[in-house]
Amino acid sequence: MTAVAISSLLRYSGQWINKIYLIEEKKQPFHANAKFIASHYPDKVIRYKPYFYHGLSPANKLFFGWKLYRNSVRYQYAFENSNQKYLYMIHNDVLFHSDILGMYLEHIQSNHYAGVGPIGMCWNCPAHAAGVCSSDKYLEFRPTESEWSALVQNYPAPRKEVYEFFRQNRENWPLPECRLNEWSALIDREQTAPYQFPYVKDILFGQMDLDTAVRWFYHMNNQGLKFKNVPLGNYATHVWTGQEGEANSGMSTMSNQELYYRAEKMAYQKLITEYGFTDLELKGNKPW
In this predicted model, which residue has the larger pLDDT, 7 or 256? Predict the structure, then answer.
C-alpha cells in the first residue's frame, strides 16, 4: 500500500516533489518491510525507521529535547530534515488520480495560508451534528463558553468526556475535533516553524493530543495562522482498498489480518500492472 501511495503521487505530482521521507515505524503490522520502495526510487525516497514507537499514545513531552525520541513522533523527522518551503503529509493508504500538489499549491498561495487539506473530524463534533459548523466554517464559528457547553450536552459527541482534559482551561476555539487531517496535508514550513519545536518546545505536528495534530492545529490558529479546507475530491482516494461501508477502515486494515492481506494483495497487483514493479523486486514482501 505504501508503494502504491508513493508511486501514484509521483506519477501525477512528481514535478513538484524534491524528496520523499518514508517514515517506517518501529512496529509494523504483520512484519511489513518497506526497504524495496527506497530501492525502487533511490533518488527520491529517504527511508527512516524511528528508534521508539509511540503508536496511538501521546509521546512524553519532557523528552522532546532528545532528538532520537522526538523524531519517533510521526512526521517529525520530515519536519526537521526538509529544507523546502512546503511539506506534504500523507497516509500510506491514499491512491492519487490527478495532480493534487499542483492544486494544493494554488490554494495555499492564494491567500497566504499556512496549510491546506481536509479539515476537521466533523463526524465526531457536536457543532457539526447541530448543523452550525463544518470544515469550511471553522474559521468563522467561534461559540461562547455557554454555547459550546450546550452543544456538547445536547448533540452527539463520542469523545466529549475528554474535551475538558484536552483544553486544559484554554480557549474553546478551534473546537477540539478541528485539525488539518494528516492523511493529506500541505503545510507551509516557513510560516509554521516559529510556532513549533524548537521555538515552542511541546508543539509537534504528529503529537497525539486527542488525535494527531489537534494540539498543533489549535496552537497555530491561536497564533493567527490560517488554514483552508480543501477536500480530496477527484484527486485522490483515502483508504482506497477499504470495503464499502466498513467503519474506520484504515485502522481496521492495520489491525485485522484478513483485511490487511486483502489490501496488500490489491496493492501488489497494482504495482505489477501499473507501476513497473517486478515480482523479483517484491519477493519476500508478500505477507500472505
Answer: 7
